[in-house]
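Supplementary Data S3. Sequence and structure tokens for construct A.
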Amino acid sequence: MKEDFVGLHRDLVAYMLVWARTCEKKQPPHDEVRSRIRSLLEAQQERVTRESMNAENYKQGRFAICAWIDEMIMNSGWEHRQDWQKDLLQTEYYRTTNAGEEFFERISHLQPEQKAVREVYHLCLGLGFKGRYCWDDDMPKLKEIMQQNYAMLPGPPVEVRDLGLERLTPEAYVEEASGTPAPKPKPALNRTKLLLYALIPPALFILLFIIYRFVLGGALNSLTA
């Protein structure tokens, strides 16, 4: 059975996306945020055990998620971010404070068969993780890494509607929810054609990936319902 580590992290990522939109206004307590994140991570671990997933691969992907969360929080306007810095997720789970460097070391050492893990790293890059490539001059290198990683993602034929290429605006989802017939499916894209999208700016990858994995998956809707 194909392991879906992106799907495994879906609820946690959805929680953090909602948190990022509201933290400056609501300023939730440190303990509340920490407890919620720990609870979601524990639920992941229980599912990994229950479904006999590869525990080592899970931990590899979780590292990327923890690094992304730590960076997001430290770059936010949350009044408790200095308290968070004293006990980063990367420190609690991996005994490091250098995830900005190690993220890219880990991604460079992923094996060809670890495609499900690579997908998690690509998700974090798409969601804005920069790590050591945080300066304007680093953007070309970061873009290159994203493109290289994208080219190594799982690559069976994918239909346009599965990626959301024909639905890039919120209005499209409103129309679908109202019962308007969805656009007629377009022909499937083979792997070679998909790789051409490596020439498109990373911002579009971000949009497509979020639409595909979270908006279409309904994670945000279920979390905020």
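Construct B, processed identically:
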Amino acid sequence: MFNIKSFLVFIATLVAFISSYGLVAGAATNNDVSSNITSLTANPDNLNDGDITTVHFEFDDHSQPIKPGDTLSVNWQGDKNVYGNGYEKEMDYKIDGISVGTLKIFESKATITFNDNISNVNNVKGYAEFPIKGRNVTPTNDANTGYFNLYGGSKNVKITVNKAATTPSKENFYYKVGEILTDDANRVRWSLNINNNKENVNNSIVIGDQTQSGQQLDPSTFNIYIDGKINQRFIGKNAVNNFKAAYPGVTFDISGNDFKLIIPESLASGNHINIDYRANIEDYNQTTFLNNSQISYQVENETPVVEKEYDASAKNININGGIDGSGITQVSVNKVWNDNNNEYGARPQNVTVQLYANGKPTLQPITLDGANAWKYVWNNLVKQINGEPVQYSVKEINVPENYEQLISQNESQKFIITKKFQWLAAK
């Protein structure tokens, strides 16, 4: 006799088995293959609070094959007092110009996720390199040493982070700092700290500020904080206008990468004022970004300070990686003269050439002459910015009179500047 209850139990068991199998099969398309990590290092591995270490790991496909959807991961773990912060960036891995995966850096991990194009690639070998900021914020005035760990497959690295002892002391009246934040790695944050001891002043405070090359001040990013006799803040794209409206005696003039700030005595006395803003990074090959600042002020019953320099810098942050040896790139230039071997004696002794990245100047101009056979190669250039390839170009500065210039690209990022003498224009 047919037993409907037994049949339903059989069907339920079969469905559960099929569902379970489907989940396992699905997981195989997104498998962690971190066992393929062959080395993991951090340099340096002993930091002071706020210092940066460079993490480098290498991988291949010898431990297990790499398939579409597979992921390599490096994680860093600490506690609420001692930890590492990654800079949020990403880049593509390419073989012969075809993307096979993406490197992404997060606050507490780095991942490489491979796409469908990896399916026909054998003997995969590559690396990744990225910065981590070490923090030790242990709530004590005493010196403290702690650590956090990096993990990648079977590899691990211990990173020590030291916090110096702190003693109460009077701060400088003014200082300026710059940094690239871990969650905002494409901009530099500059911060002005004014009247840090909340002293009374006899006159207005006058500050000049000049953001230097490779970055562009964004006037919509100013934040202004006042604490002391007054507690107030102005944030958002209208912060500067709202600040000036609230305090009519304030002068805050912005022009390009420069600004001038005048804080009247009535507002400056007894108040600490912090002003921060962002500058968009334009030259990703630049190693350090600079900012110049000057301040004039007089603390009550003290000697006036006139245009004292307080300059600041911020180190650039980049990630790098390669697969089958790719990752960074190079650009070459070759100067060719089409003037019948300088028949008219118009050829200059040398020429100056500027390299451009995405249409903007990068690095210093170079000189081509007979000594270097009119050739030059830029090495170790950034290959990608935010996952997009950098478009490099070259341009000669001050083209000689009576010469017509033609710039061609005979291979990927190999430029030829041909100079043809214009016979009819010869004098």
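Residues 4-27 form the longest helix (24 residues). The helical segments are 4-27, 239-246, 265-268.
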